[in-house]
Specification:
Non-ribosomal Peptide Synthetase Peptidyl Carrier Protein, Chain A, 4 helices
């Protein structure tokens, strides 16, 4: 799977979970960049991403994410 395909899917997931019209994620996007992305929605995002991609993240992987790019790297590694 290519990064562009992952980003297209993540944009849809983030927009749906965060109840936004549209999201344009980049490697450098963090929770600080999106007002609706708080600790509760972070859990919802992780669950939605795992379900959409049919994967499971470890707690250590999630804690190491500093931005969306790190999340994408984790998805690619699965």
């Amino acid at each position: 799977m290519e990064r562009e395909t992952i980003y297209n899917k993540l944009n849809e997931i983030f927009a749906d979970v965060l109840d936004l019209d549209e999201v344009q994620l980049t490697d450098d996007t963090t929770a600080d960049d999106i007002e609706e992305w708080d600790s509760l929605s972070h859990i919802q995002l992780v669950v939605a991403v795992e379900k959409a991609f049919g994967i499971k993240f470890t707690a250590l992987e999630i804690m190491r994410w500093k931005n969306v790019g790190a999340m994408v790297d984790s998805i690619l590694s699965k």
